[in-house]
User: Fold this.
Amino acid sequence: MKKLKQILLFILTALFLVSCSSSKETVKEQELIIYPSPPEKTRIQYLTSFSTAFDITGEQSEFLSNIVGEKENRAIVKPYGIAIYKGKIYICDTILGGIIIIDLSNSTFEYFTPKGLGDLKNQLIAL
Assistant:
């Protein structure tokens, strides 16, 4: 009986240690993309890209989607202009008819689509 308890304790300890150990995933070294190419002075460096809300906020867990429902993965469809103000990125989207507001520090991705007199429209001027 004492030996059985020791074996059981050993198995439980091993399972605990395996579940607590963090898997160290190796980060694939990203190719450095800069413009203009050396020997010119570098002015622009590619860091990252995003095109959907899940790229910013992360995907919704299966547990949460079962409780509150599945969250829509909104996207940047046809960007027209971009501005950055006080740490937020504002992207004008002509298909959306509004603005996408991205806050990288808080991991938020929101649509702002005004209606009525404030409706944003892309007006083409014919010459």
